[in-house]
Amino acid sequence: MIFRLLVLILLPVMAYYAVKSARTRFNLNSRQTQILFAITAALLVVAVLILMGRLPIHFILAPLGAAGAFLLRFLPTLLRLLPFWQMLQSRTASARPRSSNQNSTIRTEFLAMELQHDTGNMDGTVLKGPFVNQKLSELTLTQLLELREICVTDSDSLQVLEAYLDRTQEEWRAQSGQEKTTAEVDESTMTRELALEILGLEEGASEKDISNAHRTLMQRLHPDRGGSDYLAKKINLAKDFLLK
User: Fold this and answer.
1) Which helix (H) or strand (E) holds 130?
2) Distances in Å between the alpha carbon of 4 and those of 15, 17, 27, 51?
3) What dihedral do alpha carbons 80, 81, 83, 88 form, nearest 10°?
4) Mean pLDDT of 39-66
5) Which of 42, 72, 79, 122 has the highest CB neighbour count under 10 A?
6) 242 or 14: which leads in pLDDT
7) Average pLDDT, rounded, for the chain
8) Between 63 and 85, the higher pLDDT residue
9) In what order do the strands lie in the sheet with 103-107?
């Protein structure tokens, strides 16, 4: 009796951690997680009923046996059809129209910079300091240069702001006498959530989605096309992190 009680207590805990582990390991999106949770909950209910003696054990063994026999019989056929299914999925994905107004975000200590995939335009919001909550596009060049002096304490903020100035104020270096800052990216700070944010993707994005977002951003922000070394390195790092 005590053993059954302990099992009944442990089953929900084990089911919770199993779903949580599967979501992390296989990078499941919210819909996939909900489906997995529903299946796990159904199996948990069946297991509890069996342990309580309310349901004969062959109730679950019989369907499992039938499913196993079906797989053994039709497995060769399913394996032969798998390449056609993958080809169909690939064609469907390539035919799907790319969403418009897709944005990427790069957050630093002082700035939240937004990059528009369609146009390559950049703008940002000041997160701290005298210009907090203001858009960069609302500031004058004098104010932007003042903000730059504040951002020198954070390398990421400084390089993101200089990338914005290079794109929107082409003569700012000549007017202020500033030389180009060497682009340095700290790889240790990259996380999956941050990489998805940089590429403007959601959890569950496929390798094709990652490659497409990376290609679109590099077409807009590559240094050879008037972009920034820092942003290009950040975008490359995000792609490499997600495709590991």
Assistant:
1) none
2) 16, 20, 34, 7
3) 170
4) 72
5) 122
6) 242
7) 77
8) 63
9) 103-107, 111-116, 122-126
Asked if 213 and 199 touch (Cβ cutoff 8 Å), the reply is yes
Handedness of CA 106, 107, 110, 111 (dihedral sign): positive
Quote the pLDDT of residue 64: 67
What pLDDT was estimated at residue 97? 43
Kindly list the domain boundaries of the chain, sorted by start residue: 2-95, 103-242
The CATH number, out of the four listed (3.40.50.150, 1.10.287.110, 2.60.40.2470, 3.40.50.10710), of the domain defined by the range 103-242: 1.10.287.110
DSSP 54: S
pLDDT in tens, 102-155: 788 888 899 998 888 777 788 999 999 899 999 999 999 899 999 999 998 988
Cα dihedral sign, 137-139-142-143: negative
Give me the phi and psi of 113, to 5 degrees please.
Answer: -95, 135
Beta bridge partners of 136: none
Q: Is the dihedral of CA 117, 119, 122, 124 positive or negative?
A: negative
Are residues 206 and 93 in contact, defined by beta-carbon separation less than 8 angstroms? yes
